[in-house]
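Methods — Computational structure assignment.
A single polypeptide chain was analysed. Its primary sequence is given first, followed by the predicted tertiary structure written as structure tokens.
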Amino acid sequence: MPERKKKLLPNGGYPMHTFEDVRERYFAYITNPNDRKMIESAYLLAKEKHEGQFRRSGEAYIQHPIEVAYILTELQSGPATIASGFLHDVVEDTDTTIEYIASRFGEEVAKIVDALTKIQRMKLSHMTAEDFEAEDHRKIFLGMAQDVRVILVKLADRLHNLRTMDALSPERQVALSRETIDVFVPIAHRLGIYTLQSELQDLSLKYLEPAAYKRIQELVNDRFNKKKESLDNLKKRIADILFEQKIPFRMESRVKSIYSIYRKMYEKDHDFDDIYDVLALRIITESVLNCYEILGIVHSTYTPIPGRFKDYIAMPKPNLYQSLHTSVLAGDGNSYEIQIRTEEMDQIAETGVAAHWRYKEGTRYNAKDEQKDIEENLAWFRDFVSLSEDNQSKTAKEYMSSLTNDIFGANVYVFTPMGKVIDLPAGSTPLDFAYKIHTRVGDTAVGALVNGVGVALNTVLKTGDVCEIRTSKNAQPNDSWLNIAKTASAKAHIRRALQKRDEEFLREDRIKTGRTALLDSFRLNGFGEEEALELLDFQKIENEFHISNMDDLCVAIASRNPTASAVLSALNVRKKPNITEYASRPLKPKEVDDNPIQVGKGMSGLAISLSHCCNPIPGDDVVGYITKGKGITVHRRNCPNIAGEQKRLIDVSWKRDLGPSTYPVDIQVFANDRPNLLAAILQTLGAKGVGVSDLHAKLLPETMNDIIEMTVSVPDAKVLQDAFADLLGIKGVYEIKRIIH
């Protein structure tokens, strides 16, 4: 067992701990011998694997995992978390594998270490520095969404790195400090881990704004020295009264963090002398009733400063923080903030989620249950998990932007009629509020009552509003909602609902297209609709194609898998006598009466077919191309596949009074990307009676333009041109082409 030693780091005055120090702390609350053995085993493995490795400060690398583990024991973390703190770098920096970690310490530890390793193993590859940073941050939060213990270890890791940052270059110091303020501080704040949050902020400010940091430090020390006697008198007088009233309490002084003062002075333009809560008195008691009793005593003894009272017990902050805050004028003219809370509130105020879910001996830890418990108690965490689960549809920068706006930027507090607090980002509307309550409430919203007055769904909410959502079971999201909603989570729910609507519309359209193709195929073989439906034997169809109903069959045919002719073949449908074929099948001159193409005299005996490369349709200017062994293939006259040909070309034309047939045409639609573009296109074509099949759409990220390729079925060129004109009238569509293969 290593010797117990303590010494000070030369670069910051922080104590250097040993494994014995860590052991002493976790022995105080972890008594299970197996858990204690696992933690020590994790330390010994880390020490073995990091042997010979040193930090830039010159100290042995094992010192870093020891300090991380020590910070985790200060939060009273569980055995798996502490073990992961010791092991968080061994896979990244040594030859140790995740599989080995799992075999020796179990899946629980392995999953935490694996998530931490993935955060570390970022490679720049093709990414810009900005994209790399966003992707790095996304991995941190995705790991946390799966298991909150990942971020606890990561916060401890970052805190120790900041404590020992003097060995790094000034550029690296600034970069790490900025990242800490932008990424790690907001999540520590949201989790309520004030002790870590405050130190992370102060250490970062020390490197980002060294002059301001030093000045504020001097101002705070000066005020404390000047007011120490006054503060002691305040404490003594309140303590005497509480003793007299026999109210249990303990009392301590609190100095506001340097970073908090910096924000008020430099970001909110306050003078240092106007900041009331630089020095505060904290009174911790036993019960909520005691808290309010103490508040009454304080207000009856000292003059409260108007507008400075806040009741976070009745209305806790989203990170579970509870306390009474008031500011008073002492008899000597000095002002002080007084915070009143219970012991449990004080623990949660200091360590937040870590206190609420700290390791309890004798209980069986379950990561999924804890995540669920956190989601139920921290409303924002449920939104965070939902946003993270949807992240695959976003770039890393989009994900981080949504996280910053929806989660970290949520500082508007709105009440439900039952008094529940819903936190939202600035600019949010009742629609965002509705989706925060429940997806079903959002999807069926038709209006809202704000403070008892009916308002539209695009009304901007403000802190203190009481909002009630009016719903209708027949309501559903529409395209305009994407402009009303401000939160990424609400927008994601709306997009899913609209996508489902579009898919249903597309399915209905494909059912119609497939049914038409199937009945046309029967008709070409001499069978009317009633006869065709009687011939459909779904037992045979299911055996052959694994399709058991008419709608699914029509959808499959619209996608040409299977084709209508393949279905007829599977059903052993034979052509009735004297039925001719036309359109895209080879046509012989002797069938001229039903042939859409007419040719000059002397061409008898040659088969005629419509080209598949340019898909000519009635109304197109066409020409025949004589192919040896294949007869005449009809092309559009401007088809590039026959350019330069002269000898083999012959004149052909469309017959008049063609029957009610449709012809396939492959087209491309070019458009600026926007929500529900596809639905608008399909609705427009459906209104013209134009069938659609074989549809493919792709987005060009560099231009944010869509290219939609599809096969449409039209009777002639005029209908096609009319359809083109209608499509060009759709917002965003700027060009349409017929495809030539």
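Note: Residues 1-11, 121-129, 578-593 have pLDDT under 50 and may be disordered.
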